[in-house]
Amino acid sequence: MNEAVREADAALWAGFREWMTANSSPMLLWTLHEQHNNHKGVLQVFLSRNHRGSPFWDMLSWIAEHGKGSYGLFYVDDDEDTNREDFSNVFRVHRLMNGNVQELADPFFGSIIPNLEPMHPYGRDTPDES
After folding, report:
1. Cα separation of 122 and 59, whole Å?
2. What is the rounded CA–CA span in Å between residue 123 and residue 70?
3. Torsion of CA 83, 75, 39, 43, to 10 degrees
4. In Å, how far are 72, 87, 96 from 11, measured between CA atoms?
5. CA 112, CA 89: separation in Å to the nearest integer?
6. Which terminus of the chain, N or C, has less C-beta within 10 A?
């Protein structure tokens, strides 16, 4: 890898860390590994939030804009996602690639209820009282 690429990577990672420091949330956990085996800039993100209003979406936009070579998949389970179609019982996959974020159907899990969670007689969000 040449020096120009190393400097560009270092600037991107510093910019990302700065953005995350200013915009992060306690519910958004992340780890950036600048070097991991043969890979550079491996980002792991975990979010436990039951509303779309979180810095995750802004973070994803920041990465798409500033890290054009970045790529990844983000699985989202949003039981309130009924604005366009009813996606409240399925995962949606958000693919980051070539500076774009695209929302796609999940080809693997299918319906969350009953495939991943048993149906509770009082609804999905009711804790199991057994």
Report:
1. 35
2. 38
3. 70
4. 20, 38, 20
5. 5
6. C
Name the residue with tokens 């179609």. 85
Torsion angle of C-alpha atoms 117, 27, 31, 68, degrees rounded to 10: 90
Q: Could you give the C-alpha distances from 43 to 2, 92, 113, in angstroms and in order?
A: 22, 20, 30
Q: What is the DSSP letter of 40?
A: E
pLDDT tens profile 58-112: 999 999 999 999 999 998 887 777 667 788 788 889 999 999 999 999 999 888 8
Euclidean distance between CA atoms 49 and 30, whole angstroms: 14
Convert the pLDDT of each residue in 12-64 to its tens digit. 999 999 999 999 888 888 999 988 777 788 999 988 766 666 788 899 999 99
Distance CA 29, CA 32 (A): 10
d(CA 93, CA 63) in angstroms, rounded, equals 17
